[in-house]
Amino acid sequence: MIRAIVTDIEGTTSDIRFVHNVLFPYARERLAAFVTAQQYAEPVKSILDNLREEIAAPHATTGELVDALFSFMDEDRKSTALKALQGIIWQDGYVNGDFTGQLYPDVLPALEKWKAQGIDLYVYSSGSVAAQKLLFGYSDEGDITHLFSSYFDTRVGAKRDVQSYQNIAAQISVSPSQILFLSDIHEELDAAEQAGFRTLQLIRGDEDGASHHHQIHQFDEINPEQIPS
Length: 229
Fold this sequence. Notes:
Blueprint: E1 4-7, H1 16-38, H2 44-54, H3 62-75, H4 80-95, H5 107-116, E2 120-124, H6 129-137, E3 150-152, H7 162-172, E4 179-183, H8 186-194, E5 198-202, E6 215-216
Helix pairs in contact: 1-3, 1-4, 2-4, 4-6, 7-8
């Protein structure tokens, strides 16, 4: 019996193009000016200090930190500091109405149905928790953050590490065998499976021939009572 569903965002609930074509460019254009203006104010000051630790350069200048952040963007590195700064910048975009959080049309009806069935819903994404809440709080469908019991990002661990999923199970106090993880990336599903989670792979395009996980194309194909083991 599934008691909890944990979902990825990018490529799962939301089109990967929204993140790469809207969110990432928006933050990139504003990053240098934002960091320079806010470098001595919290929370940016603490984020930059954490970034200095991350790159093992305790005396790095603000300019050097900005260069590192741009390099992280180019590498698509899952840096907690970068994700935190992007989330703050995106907040202005959401609040100002520059964009809304994109959801596939099949997502919200399924989430509402599962919630009504008493299943707890969670989000696990490499984007910061703040960024996750913004996407769902300012989504195409309005504010749907009330549907989720909690959110997880890279602070709980990397998405391809088994320990990350063990940490999530411990934090939500649910047996791994009663948790369903949804993602479009089979390596993430591999790690969740090794932690004892049930898994389903969301495939919005061509099927993943390298994956052994059961593949579906839409949320409305998911029946938590009939999840393949």
